[in-house]
Amino acid sequence: MEYRGFRLSRSKTEYLRCGFSGVDRDDGEVTMGGVVVPQVEKFKYLGSIIEESGDIDEDISHRIRAGWQKWRKTCGVLCDKKIPLRLKGRVYRMVVRPALLYGVECWPIKKTQVQRMMVAEMRMIR
Length: 126
What we know:
The protein has about 130 residues and is of the alpha+beta class.
């Protein structure tokens, strides 16, 4: 489907109805060109997982996994005893920490979730 240069894929298009206010509204189905667009409970947008309820637990888990993935890729530098500690710290702050903390400025975070992030970071640093 194309609207003035904008292409939209019917097979990939989905929508999320936000229930942040707690008011349950059912406005019916969303259709596009006679085809019903599926409603989802969560989706990934710009690297963050957005959930219908507004929870961020899955996004936190995703960020922790991304941080560990970057840590494993840089493990050759971070675990080498011949490399100075100062250089290891710089590599960690420039590679691993941004992957771990991407998008946290927008999170309505709770103390337990902060604790999860701190535990993951301390395990990486050790």
